[in-house]
């Protein structure tokens, strides 16, 4: 008993000491650490694939890539093919990559540069933004669940809610202000188009998901994964599913994202110019498991250069939103009854945040 107390006290002290630096994992790397501190250590069983991929799953190389034709399909057949591709991907993987998505490649590069520029500012500048006050418009910190998760992740992040109430320019750091505003507008436009195709893939009117206000909120989360001196001891992001309706992820060329399917981890390869789309928990809930929200993780960065990514979550999060969400009426029947109870986005997000990235799905809490 005494040993447990000492260990937990030590961990609490180390977590506080790390957080008090206000410079995150980047601060550790800048200080020249050659060992990963124990607050980041993850049991080895959680880091590797449990066993080799069986022969019947060898054909599942990775998530599919779908051509969106610049969001202007030349004919009905091409649109139908895209809808069918999305339907299959959303039902089997919960993930797919999109190319010819209508967001300029130049803007994608500028957005990634903006994330890198913010995180690579001097520690003194970054410290002014570092906070655990989640009511702030702009939030910069290392690990939102630092004090509740079983292990810390080797990454730093900043985030901001971009819709329904966009931030004022002065709410955002000058170094990435302009590109955050422009990129979020483009992502909202792409999200509207994706929701049309997803609605059609469900056999519903193309405006159905938009009419349910799945497009109402957008939160931008910008991750910075510094090089890790001992990448076999920790993760960039622990196993989790997203607490959104839909997520649009802008990755850089450094790989590390993995998706868990049928108990195995599959690498998501870099596809130049592509955006990664994944179904969130709330879309799985309202589609009554027709679309699935698969767990995913990010490996610790083995590259000598920091990895960056930008995740845009379609959700109103903890903001007031009284609308109740449950399985869509048209998708349930006597033979296929509702699998989840109704909830608000705020209730779901609050539960998810309190639980932290502990490797279990928050959806289990809402199962009927």
Automatic annotation (TrEMBL):
A Pfam family assignment: 2OG-FeII_Oxy
Protein name: Fe2OG dioxygenase domain-containing protein
Organism field: Capsella rubella
Keywords: Iron, Metal-binding, Oxidoreductase
Cofactor or coenzyme needed: Fe cation
GO molecular function list: dioxygenase activity; metal ion binding
Every Fe2OG dioxygenase domain range: 216-317
Protein family per UniProt: Belongs to the iron/ascorbate-dependent oxidoreductase family.
């Amino acid at each position: 008993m005494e040993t447990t107390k000492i260990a937990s006290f030590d961990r609490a002290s180390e977590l506080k000491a790390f957080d008090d630096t206000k410079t995150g994992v980047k601060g550790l790397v800048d200080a020249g650490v050659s060992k990963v501190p124990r607050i980041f250590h993850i049991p080895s069983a959680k880091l590797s694939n449990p066993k080799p991929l069986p022969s019947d799953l060898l054909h599942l190389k990775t998530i599919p890539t779908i051509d969106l034709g610049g969001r202007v399909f030349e004919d009905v057949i091409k649109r139908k093919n895209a809808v069918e591709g999305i339907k299959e991907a959303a039902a089997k993987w919960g993930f797919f990559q999109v190319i010819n998505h209508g967001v300029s490649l130049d803007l994608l590069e500028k957005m990634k540069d903006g994330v890198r520029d913010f995180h690579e500012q001097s520690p003194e500048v970054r410290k002014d933004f570092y906070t655990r006050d989640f009511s702030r418009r702009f939030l910069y910190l290392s690990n939102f669940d630092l004090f509740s998760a079983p292990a810390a992740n080797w990454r730093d992040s900043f985030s901001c809610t971009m819709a329904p109430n966009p931030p004022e320019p002065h709410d955002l750091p000058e170094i990435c202000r302009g590109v955050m505003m422009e990129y979020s507008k483009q992502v909202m436009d792409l999200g509207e188009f994706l929701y049309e195709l997803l609605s059609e893939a469900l056999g519903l009117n193309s405006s159905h998901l938009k009419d349910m206000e799945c497009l109402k909120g957008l939160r931008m989360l910008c991750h910075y994964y510094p090089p890790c001196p001992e990448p076999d001891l920790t993760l960039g992001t622990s196993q989790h599913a997203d607490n959104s309706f839909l997520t649009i992820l802008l990755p850089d060329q450094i790989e590390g994202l993995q998706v868990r399917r049928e108990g195995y981890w599959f690498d998501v390869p870099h596809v130049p110019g592509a955006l990664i789309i994944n179904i969130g928990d709330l879309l799985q809930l309202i589609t009554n498991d027709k679309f699935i929200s698969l767990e995913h993780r990010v490996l610790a960065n083995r590259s000598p250069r920091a990895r960056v990514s930008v995740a845009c979550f379609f959700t109103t999060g903890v903001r007031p939103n009284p609308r109740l969400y449950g399985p869509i009426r048209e998708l349930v029947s006597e033979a296929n009854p509702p699998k989840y109870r109704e909830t608000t986005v705020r209730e779901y997000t609050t539960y998810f945040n309190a639980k932290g990235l502990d490797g279990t799905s928050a959806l289990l809490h809402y199962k009927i």
